[in-house]
Amino acid sequence: MHAAPANGIIDMHCHTAGIGAGNSGCFISPAMRKSWRYRVFLKAFWVTEEQLLQEGDALVMRRISERLAASQRVTAAVILAMDGAVDGNGELDRSSTEIYIPNDFVAAETAKHPNLLFGASVNPLRHDALTRLEQAAADGAVLVKWLPSIQHFDPADEHLVPFYLKLKELRLPLLTHTGTEHSFTMTRNELGDPERLRLPLSLGVKVIAAHCGSCGRNEGESNYHRFLRLIDEFPNCYGDISALTQINRKWHLARLLKKGVSGQLLYGTDMPLPNTVTVTPYAFPIKLSPRRMVELSRIANPWDQDVALKEALGVPEQVFSNANTVLRLPVPTP
């Protein structure tokens, strides 16, 4: 575990990847590896499959740390583990899991880099889920990440109450995907309904709705409006603005900022997506002048460009610092 970042912005939503190289324990399903997304993501992480096979999956986090260290604006990034689906015995079900990035791998590798923080992931249906939560906290986790639509559980399930109470006891916020999921080949998108988060919110868990329910619908209503209802009702409900500058979501950020909920929004990138063609300043000709779009496009560091783009689109300064009070950051050493 390392000290909390001193000053600067924390990217609280940054992914990593792995294929099992270097005994990482990671794996990607055969279907996902055949998908066009696989090569795009590897390139966006500044690696090739051949390099991973030669140097191990830890190379991805090393590359992230190196690029992040060159940023003038962002000090640290939360690297997210990703638990898989589980079977009826509460054990990992590889046949139903598209991507698996274990906690111990991410915890060990982030500890080697002062600008990386550990984001744990625990499927609450695991038979030893509470023990895994305690271990994640002991290893310095700053949050717990869920993607229910590919991990195949319902956040509204009353059987998860002990898990939620343990999160609250450990002061671990829950970052969970809301809205339709586009990055995987096998999803149950009804499980990304923001309304399914009422249970943990009512128990006092800090819940961060990734992407603010910015796409898709449930029960005839947009996930975005279902998210807004929660953020109005619960002061412990937050949203992260990662992915909201992607081409397919480009209208969501402006309407969200008009709602005056900046105190409950957190900055994130959804890296590596800002490193792909899905995010470009040229997608905002109504908001930005041609000159400003060119200026932003010339910012080489992806984190610096992401911050500058969101600032240009009107994201208030407060949003870039909210993570410092919401995440379970390590106590600074004297």
UniProtKB/TrEMBL annotation:
Q: Where is the Amidohydrolase-related domain?
A: 10-275
- Pfam families, A to Z: Amidohydro_2
Q: Which GO terms describe its biological process?
A: secondary metabolic process
- What InterPro entries does this protein map onto? ACMSD (IPR032465), Amidohydro-rel (IPR006680), Metal_Hydrolase (IPR032466)
Which UniProt keywords are given for this protein, alphabetically ordered?
Hydrolase, Lyase
- For this UniProt entry, what's an example GO CC term? cytoplasm
GO MF terms held by the record? carboxy-lyase activity; hydrolase activity
Q: Where is the signal peptide?
A: none
Protein name (record): Metal-dependent hydrolase
